[in-house]
Amino acid sequence: MIPAIVFGAGTGLGLWALLVWAIPPRPALGARLARATTPPAEPIVATQDTSWATTLGRPFVPGLRALGLPGAKTERDLLVLGRGTDPHVAAKAILALAGLLAPGLLQLLLVLDGLSLGLEVPLVAAVVLAALGFLTPDLEVRAKAARRRAEFRTALSAFLDLVWITLAGGAGVEAALTDAAEIGHGPAFTQLRRALSAAQLTRTAAWATLRRLGEELGISELAELAASVSLAGTEGARVRASLAAKAQALRTHQVTDAEAEAQAATERMALPVTLLFLGFLGFIAYPAVVQVLNGL
After folding, report:
1. Given 3, 86, 98, 235, which residue has the most CB atoms within 10 angstroms?
2. For residue 37, is it within any domain?
3. pLDDT tens digits for 57-110?
4. How many structural domains comprise the chain?
5. pTM score
6. How does pLDDT run across 113-126, given as a tens digit for each residue?
7. Residues spanned by the domain of 221
8. Do both 132 and 12 map to the same domain?
9. How many Å apart are CA 124 and CA 4, to the nearest integer?
């Protein structure tokens, strides 16, 4: 009964995916009008689409993209890492297909050797491995994006210090932003320089591109910086003290996160020691328990 249910569910899912790929859903009229009247904004963060998965999984990309994958949150995580959406979707398809076919290949090898695991075990293993292969790229991207955002916030605190020091030296707002971005190194400062260069090329305000960069990367602190700098650029407000306070708040938040992460690591280290201690107690108590049970 279970193999029939699993096989039927897999067949139905495959036919549905094939139907969506062959006849993609039509977008709504409002979305088409908005796309026609609003020119697409070029993303500030550069992405790379060259990957082994792009070549192998290219036939699966249109169908999965028609289903709405990889999702808005995952797309922001991919932008943080500088990756394209097509390689990510292709990697999900390839890993899911590999997990789906691996138990069948193992079953074939066992049959050729005169052994067999039956039909239920390969089917269940194929479904589980396919689901794991489909979700693994998302989990990897989420973890790496969280680390990259933490590194960006660390660099942003140094960037804020450089900006308010430059402002204290008498420089203008845009000059202070550009000079501070030119000093630093690393991926965060590279993205800041790219955003400020895009502002100069498109003749837009620097704080507008910084706000766009914060929205693309999902970093609220960068959007707050853009809001503070816009006050100085449009209304002439003095923001040196505000930028210094934001830098201090970022450093305090980073120290708090580091302490929480260290505390969580300490608790995780205590778990294996506890399990080892319980196993040792069981090893010591086992002869006595067996002796008591045999004497009853």
Report:
1. 86
2. no
3. 777 777 777 777 888 888 888 888 888 888 888 888 888 888 888 888 888 887
4. 2
5. 0.69
6. 777 767 777 888 88
7. 150-252
8. yes
9. 11
What is the rounded CA–CA span in Å between residue 141 and residue 161? 30
Cis peptide before 27 (omega within 30 of 0): no
